[in-house]
Amino acid sequence: MTYVQFLRLRKALTIYGIVVGSIFLFGLIVGHWPNARFDFGHGLHHALTETSSIPKSIPMSGVLFLAAWCAIIFATVLSTSLNKENDGVEMVWTKPIARERLAVQYIGLDLSAILVAFACPAVLCIIAIASVGGLEYLRFDARTWQTLIIGLGTAFMWYGLVQALTSWQRGRGGMAVGLSWAAAFLVLSFAEATHFVPGPLHQILLAADVLNPLAYFSSYSLSGYGAHASPVLPQVFAGTEMRSILTWSIGFLGCAGAVGGWKRLEV
Amino acid sequence: MNSTPVIAIRDFTKRYGSFDAVSNLTLEVEPGSICGLLGPNGSGKTTTFKCLLGLARQTAGSMDVEGAPVGPQTFENLSYVPERSALYEWLTLADHLEFNRRSFKNYDAKRADELVSLFRLERKKKVGKLSKGQQTAVALALAFSIRPRILILDEPASGLDPVFQRVVLDLIIEAAAMGSTVLFSSHQIGQVERAADRVAILKNGKLIVDGTVDSLKGSEKVVEAIFEQRVPDVDGLADDPRVRRIERSGRILRAYVQSDSEGIVRRLNEFSPKNISILDLNLEDIFINAVGGEIAMAGGDGA
Amino acid sequence: MAAIFTVDPRSGVPLYLQLIEQVKRAVALGTLGPGEQLPTVKALALDLTINPNTVARAYRDLEHDGVIETSPGRGSFVRGDGSAVQSRRAIEDVAQSVLGDAVREAKTLGLSRERAKEVFAAQLDRWFPTGDKE
């Protein structure tokens, strides 16, 4: 019953693969341009092995951080899958399957695709690191798992929220995704600008950030690298564990709301 | 026959805000019957289909298919062709057929092949690149490919040329001859007149005519009386429940009768007309009289 | 079987009545002989592109009128027994209906009862010349 969604995801993943792959290849070549020769293959390999700037320690969390960003972008692209069916929803609603079940299957397929979208750049990075003999320097630590969980959690949360906002509407899916990005960045930026935003308004922004996936991911990365207490989320939600749980919970609630909203849609 | 109706709509009302799209509709379709739903645009045909199939919720009343409200299992044996295409424009006919194959236990690949060649369709072309008529044909091929027990078709011949329109009628008739039940709407009265044994006419969300095509043709008549001088005042003729409306022009009185035309003839004979005759009406006449007639009667609506 | 009947769905006359008349006419004219099989309901419905239940109703009425007989699983056949009587009755049914229409039409056109009688007599003389009595 999910055949069309399967085709849709296959198409999306193909495009995603091409884009990520090209960016990656481009990055590699540009990154090593001074040493690169024009004959590819040997030249590229030569260029990579000649590079002397391999750090002594490569944090795996950094690789996953990059992968998470890719997965988040991809997740927002998929987040309107139920909304996409609504223009002509008669097609799937007159198939012998309960709507909730179909919606859950759609979401399940989407989440699998998001996992693939997460794994793809991570694997590419590891291959690149291996190709220059840096595999032994790859460092796994607690932060690796934190990045994995909160990175995917952020993607899931964003996905769930946009689903909840769009599943019960006809059209306007693309607009919702675009606006979600704009809103995420705006709310986050103003919430961070503690010096310019007056107190009460800042409190409101902090509250709004509870539903801002970007706040969870960026505050996590800020607190990790910048080593300062993030101002973008209320203090109640301090702590990576709490935030991870929140992203996954909000994502789950969003998906549940989306299924309910979709089921009650009238055409 | 006292078989349970396949489609049973009882006291169905659908309200949008303060507007009644359909009010108090009761309609039953017997197994193996073809019911044609006629009505001007906006008379509530599509709304009725959508509520019947659970695509929208009724405000009041009950709507059952095979004795129960529509659920996922209903669709194992039911095909719906909506008025507006619900196909995936970015997919081909082959993709759509594959979707049907994976979705329905009853999918019949051989039947699908027949239908594809019957409508002269291309399997590998994206549906979005097809004309409106071809898209309709794709939707119909999909609908009939599962050999459904119940067919609900909203304007199934729209955009098709006359040859394919006849193909659609043949498909509907064949399905009914094999025992399927069909409920379809159409603007082409000739199609309903041929294919349907049962006809229901909606106007402003109300059922104004309901019966078999043959019984309507047997009872809906025009009694035309020609008088020597001028048309006499026939007391209360316009309010007679047997009369839909009357028309006077010069020395001619025409009464559009919905039942017992002989009785109306006897009544008019008391005024000794020079000549009186009963004229047959075809379905188009009946439709126009019923739909247009209500406007004419709106002023004297006391009954 | 080729289309041996024709009906006009756009006419105001109910289709099953048209079909009954067509079958009776075919039996009367011998187009359909005693014992001959009629098309199945499905075949005839598809052949004429009309509703199968309408065809079935016409067949039921024809059976009731003793023109055809239907045996389950085998199909419908023109009755063999006493088919002469049935045919005559069928002919008369058709003839009566045609004459009835003609008289009604004459009246609609304004012929008086007396004038209609005269016209009718003239037509009788034309088609049944004296001495050609049955």
Short description:
The complex is a heterotrimer of chains A (267), B (303) and C (134). Chain B has helices spanning 45-52, 93-103, 109-118, 132-144, 162-177, 189-195, 213-219, 261-269, 283-297; strands at residues 7-16, 19-29, 34-38, 60-65, 78-81, 150-154, 181-185, 198-203, 206-212, 221-226, 243-249, 252-257, 275-280.
> Which chains make the largest contact?
B-C, 32 and 24 residues
CATH superfamily of chain C: Winged helix-like DNA-binding domain superfamily/Winged helix DNA-binding domain
String of helices and strands of chain C: HHHEEHH
- CATH top level of the largest domain in chain B is Alpha Beta
Outline of chain C: globular
Tally of separate domains of chain B: 2
CATH T-level fold name of the largest domain in chain B: Rossmann fold
Query: What Rg of chain B is obtained from the alpha carbons, in whole angstroms?
Result: 22 Å
Helix-strand layout with pairing:
The complex is a heterotrimer of chains A (267), B (303) and C (134).
Chain A: H1 3-31, H2 42-50, E1 58-59, H3 60-78, H4 81-85, H5 90-93, H6 99-131, E2 138-139, H7 142-166, H8 173-192, H9 199-209, H10 213-225, H11 240-263
Helix pairs in contact in A: 1-6, 3-6, 3-7, 6-11, 7-10, 7-11, 8-9
Chain B: E1 7-16, E2 19-29, E3 34-38, H1 45-52, E4 60-65, E5 78-81, H2 93-103, H3 109-118, H4 132-144, E6 150-154, H5 162-177, E7 181-185, H6 189-195, E8 198-203, E9 206-212, H7 213-219, E10 221-226, E11 243-249, E12 252-257, H8 261-269, E13 275-280, H9 283-297
Parallel strand pairs in B: 3-7, 3-8, 5-6, 6-7
Antiparallel strand pairs in B: 1-2, 1-4, 8-9, 10-12, 10-13, 11-12
Helix pairs in contact in B: 3-4
Chain C: H1 15-29, H2 41-48, H3 52-64, E1 68-71, E2 75-78, H4 83-108, H5 113-127
Antiparallel strand pairs in C: 1-2
Give a structural overview.
The complex is a heterotrimer of chains A (267), B (303) and C (134). Chain A contains 11 helices and 2 strands; from the N terminus they run H-H-E-H-H-H-H-E-H-H-H-H-H. Chain A has helices at 3-31, 42-50, 60-78, 81-85, 90-93, 99-131, 142-166, 173-192, 199-209, 213-225, 240-263, and strands at residues 58-59, 138-139. The longest helix of chain A is centred in the middle third of the chain and has 33 residues, at 99-131. Chain A is globular and about 60 Å long. Chain B folds into 2 domains: 7-215, Rossmann fold, CATH 3.40.50.300; 221-280, Alpha-Beta Plaits (2-Layer Sandwich). In chain B, strand 1 and strand 2 form a beta hairpin. Chain B is of the alpha/beta class and 303 residues long. In chain B, strands 5-6-7-3-8-9 form a 6-stranded mixed β-sheet, with helices on both faces. In chain B, strands 11-12-10-13 form a 4-stranded antiparallel β-sheet. A 3-stranded antiparallel β-sheet of chain B has the order 2-1-4, with helices on one face. Chain C has 134 residues and is mostly helical. The N and C termini of chain C lie far apart (36 Å). The radius of gyration of chain C is 18 Å and the shape is globular. Chains in contact: A-B, B-C. Chain B binds chain C through residues 32-34, 166, 169-170, 173-174, 176-178, 190, 193-197, 213-215, 217-218, 274-275, 277, 279-285, and chain C through 9-17, 41-42, 45-46, 49-54, 57, 104, 107-108, 110.
